[in-house]
Specification:
D-amino Acid Aminotransferase, Chain A, domain 1; 23 strands; single chain; alpha+beta; five-stranded parallel β-sheet; eight-stranded antiparallel β-sheet
């Protein structure tokens, strides 16, 4: 029997580090790649990495990356036979998956029906409950805020209000008393409508100091599914992850098996195809509840690759091409420990406000146990057009302690000059005694806010640091002392 053919050309409907990540695997597999970009990204690294590139018109860069019609037209025009959505943008858009299929191409991900089922938080919760996966006590949307709040009071406080069609912390708030409920519900509904075009919200019991555990799954689309173990994603700020690791620390083997089995049961029942992630909230008492399913590749997928030795993008492509699952469940093994730190252009001292600027210098440590997933270039402008995440530093160690030490060392050696980042903050998190002990929960950043704040820097130390940078980094030195144009062209003349 002849081998199932793979794709000849894949368009990646994304940008930045994830587009570069997918191109790397496509190149290794001998598959041509196509990048898309708005005009302001014409010289970006992901554009340069691809076999060819297509400009997508749009009023804004984000609008270009969300234009289903133009992206599908571009894929047809270049002769692509498949589209990989990456993460974010259109990756969990059922209409996009359907449009790709209708155009005769393969969507490298689940089909539109599965995305619609699992992408809506309420239908996903109902499906999970119907298939024996525990969900937290909750109240579903009604036509009026008054009815919703009246029902929500019956399950008690604290409550977590969430957007039915949302994610990324938008339309989400914690409510601890009846007096807060009506206003919080109205605000959540308004925010959900603004961000997702869907004002439906729901409420569920809020688990105090919970852990956020997610399970990587692969499905063959016919009911076959496996897990590739779990990831710990509890260290978050404003409901967004900043440090992830695999496997989860301080998780009893029996509980790990139970959580992973629940994820596989859900994926199998949905006849899930391709890579996905089932997320759970884990209480201190060992009870866990289904949170949501992400029907795409996760930002933090490299930590799973580090401990399993698998290329998840390759697995996605092979499953989409009809090759089935890359291995059996009993062949999946955990090797060591991996940690991912999200490097963001933001100021931790100002409540993680996004920062803008121009990348003046990039210095990345090179080690066999380190991956620096990025699309950075010297001279690149960091704007507010896109998410503030610049890169991901991913480290592997034989043990969790070794992975922590290596992560701190790598962050200390990493230099990104020209825009303020959270690198120092991440080092303080990794070095905190509670983090090292594995005492993790989603309120970690808030609870340890004082200890994670930077020590004041005196003027003398600031001058010393700048002087050391000027002497130690050639590029920084040249930027600091060179004569600017047009005066450089005049030579040594001075007025």
């Amino acid at each position: 029997m002849s081998e199932t053919p793979l794709f000849k050309k894949v368009l990646v409907a994304n940008r930045g580090e994830i587009a570069c990540r997918v191109f790397r695997t496509l190149d290794a597999m001998g598959i041509q790649s196509v990048a898309i970009h708005h005009r302001v990204e014409a010289g970006a690294r992901h554009v340069r990495m691809a076999s060819q590139a297509v400009e997508i018109e749009g009023q804004t860069p984000v609008a270009a990356h969300l234009d289903i019609g133009r992206i599908v037209e571009a894929a047809i025009a270049v002769g692509a036979d498949a589209i990989h959505p990456g993460y974010g943008f259109l990756s969990e858009n059922a209409r996009f998956a359907a449009a790709v299929a209708q155009a005769g191409m393969t969507f490298i991900g689940p089909d539109s029906e599965t995305i619609a089922l699992m992408g809506d938080k309420i239908s996903a919760r109902n499906f999970a409950a119907a298939n024996g996966v525990a969900v937290a006590p909750s109240v579903m949307p009604t036509d009026s805020i008054e009815d919703f709040t009246r029902q929500a009071e019956t399950i008690g406080f604290p409550l977590l209000i969430k957007a039915a069609a949302g994610g990324g912390g938008k339309g989400m708030s914690i409510v601890r008393s009846a007096g807060e409920l009506h206003r919080a519900s109205a605000l959540a509904a308004s925010e959900a409508q603004r961000y997702f075009g869907d004002g439906r919200i729901y409420a569920e019991t809020y688990i105090e100091r919970p852990r956020h555990i997610e399970v990587q799954v692969l499905g063959d689309g016919e009911g076959g599914a496996i897990h590739l173990f779990e990831r710990e994603c509890s260290v978050q700020r404003r409901f967004q992850k900043i440090i992830e690791e695999a496997p989860a620390t301080n998780l009893p083997a029996g509980l790990r098996d139970e959580i992973c089995a629940s994820a596989v049961r859900l994926a199998s029942a949905a006849k899930y195809s391709n890579a996905g992630t089932v997320e759970f909230i884990l209480g201190a008492d060992g009870r866990f509840f289904f949170l949501e399913m992400n029907t795409r590749l996760q930002v933090e997928h490299p930590v799973t690759e580090m401990i399993t030795g698998l290329d998840l993008v390759r697995a996605q492509i092979e499953i989409a091409a009809g090759k089935g699952l890359p291995l059996r469940q009993d062949e999946a093994k955990i090797g060591g420990h991996a940690i991912e730190c999200r490097i963001c252009a933001e100021d931790p001292e100002r409540d993680f406000m996004p920062e803008t600027g121009t990348i003046a210098y990039i210095g990345v440590p090179e080690e066999p146990w380190l991956r620096f997933e990025n699309a950075l270039d010297q001279g690149r402008k960091v704007t507010s057009d896109f998410d503030p995440m610049l890169a991901k530093l991913v480290v592997h160690g034989a043990s969790r302690d070794e992975a922590i030490e290596r992560s701190i060392a790598a962050l200390d050696m990493l230099a990104v000059l020209g825009v303020r980042t959270n690198v120092d903050y991440l080092m303080r998190v990794l070095g905190h005694a509670s983090f090292r002990a594995g005492d993790l929960h989603t309120a970690f950043v808030t609870e340890h806010g004082g200890a994670l704040a930077p020590a004041p820097v005196g003027e003398a130390l600031r001058v010393q640091v700048l002087a050391a940078a000027a002497l130690g980094f050639r590029d920084f030195h040249e930027l600091a002392i060179r004569t600017p144009e047009p005066y450089a062209a005049i030579g040594g003349w001075r007025n």
